[in-house]
Amino acid sequence: MRLSRPDGMDRVRWRRGGLLYVAPALVLYLAFVAWPVLKNLQTSFLGNTEFDPSLSFVGLDNYRWLVETRASRLAFRNVLLFGVLTVPVQMVLGLLLAVALRGRGLVRGLLRTLLFLPVVLTPVVIGYLFADLLETTNGSVNTTLRAIGLDALAHPWLADPSTALPVVAAVNVWMWTGFSMAIYQAAITGLDDSVLEAAALDGASRWQTLRYVVAPMLRPAHYALLILGVIGTLKTFDLVYVLTRGGPDHASEVPTSLLLTTLLNGRDGRAAALGTAVFVLALVMTVLQLRRYLREESR
Amino acid sequence: MRGGGRLGLTVVAAVTVLWMLPLARLVTVSLRDGGLDNYGEVVAQQGLGRYLLNSAVVTLGAVLLVLVLGSVAAFAFSKLRFPGRNALYVLVLSGLMIPVAAILVPLTQIETTLGWQNTYQGLSVPYAALALPFALVILRNTYDGLPDELLEAAVVDGASTWKAFRRVYLPLTTPALVMVGIWTFLNSWNEFLLALMFMVSPEMRTVTVVPASFQLEFFVDVPKIFAALVLIQLPVVLLYALMQRTFERGLTAGAIK
């Protein structure tokens, strides 16, 4: 075994204390990420009132609140809906764009650069921009609709409970489609040309090639985007906060926005329970998807 | 794969124009009733310069912390043997999926205990901690790609492990450092939730927290708010224009590895 190799090299590596090298990073990570996760779990079993900030053990009360309160149930329903409205849409649009833009050339490069641009922009800034565009009376979207005679379609997009969440989701799609495109682009570049040529020779149409040859070969990219999409969905906050503050009447509330409100109301325990729920969801989703991916890979 | 057809390209060009309309609108409105004076005014009278500086300091702090601590740790995880190596690596990796929401309550308590609210380190340090898992994955992969023999040769030549790291390995990881640096820069510059919680006093606000207060002060002076939004976005867009390939690779690297 390597450990007992007498040539000296491994002894050097051992002796120079690798632990010292990782210690600073580890301490930072433990203090500000790992330990807070545990501390959050502990806090989720503690409760306080708006008048008395001191925390005392309340058992599962905060989780009962989580399950029974309308705002919290809506928040978790909404985040699920948000994921369904954004992740698959971004993936399909991104794949189509990546396929259409494959290859080299100045125009393709420029289009790629522009489509990826929203990914690097500040979500808060995008939020304020779209809040203005979607404003009911003077927003560009509604004034344009009225100008071209589609008055019937003009709508209080963010103020109507039935459109608030889908509209925030649409803005998210605007921001993140370029990301899916870039992932697919990298994956497509790595594909073996000969397989695709064989498919073309066999008389497969463009669509058939894409559907039955290319798409299955991009499985690692699908999974990566699915995992990142789910985690990203659970992290959703900035756009919601700026566009709707979770309103109207919790119609676009997500767990993180509710957590902030709850924490600012001085209910640490309930906020911690929300945080733990989000963490467990992220953990379960990641493990499930990784397991499915690994099982398919090993087939 | 062969290039896409001309028709497809035309369709995508049309889609791209549509996609860019909101941004075109942002710039046009920011210049309305006053032109570039709008920009001058938000900087001179609303102190946007200070907020840009705050964000720059916080971001720079986070980037430096991540690059230094991340490099040292990634080198050790890749090239040195020590007890608990794999367990510790997996522990840090698990941070890849932790949403900030899961730690917001304890982080607030920690910041209060340390008296770090309204300080630069109050944001730089948690930003760095949250960026470390990603940095470690990218940097460790890079070190794994460099031969072990470099270390052995350096040690045989009488150099210490530390010297081998500094002089031999570190310079070879520059592309990865740039990628991780950009990733950390973007995440820190764009971060909103922690900044909103921890930077309460007006002079310490970072750029993401500013628009809300501007909205209160300007009421509906949209051109000036938009001018501020453009300025907040400018550093990011300029960097992206200069090194877009690196941005794309840096931001998608986590997914592909």
3D architecture notes:
The complex is a heterodimer of chains A (299) and B (257). Chain A is 74% helix and 1% strand. Chain A is an all-alpha fold and 299 residues long. Chain A has one domain: MetI-like (MetI-like fold). Chain A has a two-stranded antiparallel ribbon with strand order 1-2. The longest helix of chain A is centred in the N-terminal third of the chain and has 31 residues, at 70-100. Chain B has 257 residues and is mostly helical. Chain B has a single domain, classed as MetI-like (MetI-like fold, Orthogonal Bundle), CATH 1.10.3720.10. Chain B contains 13 helices and no strands. Chain B has helices spanning 6-30, 37-44, 48-79, 85-93, 104-114, 121-144, 149-156, 161-169, 174-190, 193-198, 210-218, 222-242, 244-256. The chains are: A mainly alpha (299), B mainly alpha (257). Chains A and B meet through helix 1, helix 2, helix 4, helix 5 and helix 6 of A and helix 1, helix 3, helix 4, helix 5 and helix 6 of B.
Tell how many strands the DSSP assignment of chain A holds: 2
CATH C-level category of chain B: Mainly Alpha
CATH topology of chain B: MetI-like fold
Percent strand of chain B = under 5%
Overall shape of chain A: globular
Mean pLDDT of chain A: 88
Largest sheet of chain B: none
Helix fraction of chain B? over 70%
How many whole angstroms does the radius of gyration of chain A measure? 25 Å
Structure annotation, total helices of chain A: 14
Helix/strand-derived class of chain B?
mainly alpha
- CATH architecture designation of chain B: Orthogonal Bundle
